[in-house]
Amino acid sequence: MASAFSASGATAVVLLSGGLDSATAAALAIEAGQRVIGLSFDYGQRHRRELEAARALAAHLGLADHLTIAVNLAAWGGSSLTDGSLAVPTEGVETGVIPSTYVPGRNTVFIALGLSLAEARGARRLVLGVNAVDYSGYPDCRPDYLEACQTLADLSSRAGREGRGIQLWAPLIHSSKTEIVREALRLGVPIEATWSCYAGGTEPCGVCDSCRIRDAALVEAGRPDLASQRP
Fold first, then answer.
1. Would you call 193 exposed, middle or buried from its count of C-beta atoms within 10 A (0-12, 13-18, 19+)?
2. Residues 103 and 81 sit within 8 Å (Cβ to Cβ)
3. For residue 95, how many C-alpha atoms fall within 13 Å in the half-sphere facing its CB?
4. How many Å apart are CA 50 and CA 194, to the nearest integer?
5. What's the rounded Cα separation, in Å, for the pair 15 and 48?
């Protein structure tokens, strides 16, 4: 899933959340000469501000198209990202414990819809900003999960059965957040336009786990000016 991205000129669909990781993955696809279509999801997340970021990023990166579709994963709760009665973690999580910000089935739903769009548009790749090094340890951000999804993609589509299946490409899956920041800077990604905060406000809270990890990486990469909490 993290192999070199080739086939310059082909179409790719990127799952564009509005965050740093997906924006960087999209920029890598563009650098490789891909015609990129963005797909974002309004899934009932408390941090809806990321959808504004996704639209801004799609325009900045010059994507060939950008779609936002509604999939109400908040209807049955189960996550502090979709249920306002649950607290978003602010003091880290215990190693090996999946945090409350995990949204049940989210990436499985998103990947299925991304594959559907990719096949309909004749895309050869589905680009994912998932990362297995981040603090979360989400089960649907791990290499074995993506390998299983690739098998499913090959078996569940006409394109796959005809030997031209859609490749899942996760170029950042083994990267640290600092490495991702440095790659974003190299690619000219407007980091200030991305959105990572989970709290749901109009400005980054600076204290949720997502903000703290992002800010620490920005400082380590030499760009504390882009951090929500200035040192």
1. middle
2. yes
3. 1
4. 7
5. 16
pTM: 0.93
Alpha carbon 19 to chain centroid, angstroms: 6
Q: What tens-digit pLDDT sequence spans the chain (231 residues)? A: 444 445 567 999 999 999 999 999 999 999 999 999 999 999 999 999 999 999 999 999 999 999 999 999 999 999 999 998 999 988 876 667 888 999 999 999 999 999 999 999 999 999 999 998 876 778 999 999 999 999 999 999 999 999 989 999 999 999 999 999 999 999 999 999 999 999 988 999 999 989 999 999 999 999 999 998 644
Q: Rounded CA gap, 111 and 40, in Å?
A: 11
Amino acid at 136: S
Q: How many CA atoms lie within 13 A of 91 on its CB side?
A: 1
Instruction: Tell which residue, 30, 86, 54, has the closest CA to residue 196.
Output: 54
Establish how many alpha carbons lie within 13 A of residue 146's alpha carbon, considering only the half-sphere containing its beta carbon.
22
